[in-house]
Design goal:
single chain; 427 residues; alpha+beta; 11-stranded mixed sheet; 13 helices; 30% helix; globular
Amino acid sequence: MKDTGFSAADILLPGKGIEMEKWAVVACDQYTSEREYWEEADNFVGTSPSTLRMILPECYLEDSDKEERIRKADETMHHYLESGVFIEYPDSFILVKRDTESGTRYGLVGKLDLEKYDYSPSSLSPIRATEGTIISRIPPRKEIRKNAILEIPHIMVLISDEKRSVIEPIAAKRGKLEKVYDSPLMLGGGHIEGYLVSDEDDKAIIYNALENIEQKLDPENPLLYAMGDGNHSLASAKSLWEDVKTTLSEEERGNHPLRYALCEIENIFDSGLMFEPIHRSFFDITEEKFLEILSHHAEHIEKNKADSIEEAISAINSEKQSFILINGNDISVIKTSGTEKEMPAWTIQSVIDEMLEKKEGRVDYIHGIDSVMKLAENGALGIILPDISKETFFASILRDKAFPRKTFSIGHANEKRYYVEARKIRM
């Protein structure tokens, strides 16, 4: 069977008697400005076994005790392995059913081959970043993985499977699979169920479907897996593997644990997977100056006043290369042409880059239209970007490469992936 880069793994799960609601913790890069969330999680977990004790929430990355926290996480991994906290399920996938505010979605946990991943902006690899990778964010995350005996991933990767041939056939027969966990998730995370996929026929369904998708791709630009969440964690795993593999023989490189990274793949066409654009607010800059800088990056700019935000949203979601500009109570639709790239987010990013280079204002990235409008009422310039289209998502990456940073979010913070599964990456 052809290797498409995603395969079954030797997956570790907490054994009987472990409280899953205390075990599973949301991705470490969420609530970075809300330490109270992580303090509440810490109080909720108490002395129970938990993935919280094996990760470093990013709100603590800049603290002076970071190294001590990493050391304790490494010790906890060893302790959990030695004390029988885990049960290993060899050569398996885990089918994940996740219920959130946005609906029910399904995914498959397995391992990705890092040899097929390149996070550089010009990447043409089968596994690819969807937003710009910030190189400075890799070293601290790499430091966490460097001596860890386990990986506990929050990485979520998208496939474009409009025929629903990879995950959905397995989800349809979940009643016949062994359920390996079933629990609410802490602090408003919804509910999660996991099913063991170890039968060779079931695995063949997954492998054959992925191969069928791959065969239809452009061999010169074969985007099969696009990062949804956790790109910097995957980039850190890739960077560490590049370091380690120089010390290995060709034979050792073939199946070394660090060559792979555990993740969950999800179908972009899953109705429970919700994409939200991340908007921008500009401070300390006038509308005139903003439009002047915009004119450096678009040959033509058309500005039309809108009577309501609803009218404006309808306009930008039906016309290409358009976005909303909010100045106080004035709402305008800006349509551009002659830009370097088609996506409005790229045009706005060019404005941001020039603005920051000239030290003319500052920018913040905002979730939610209401928040942008509130900031605009208090003197900021608001930029509302159009919705992210599932139908054109992969095509946009093929055309324009990775999106600018903070272009989209998949669901709210409490809908991000929770740590559940683990895998040994060192003996």
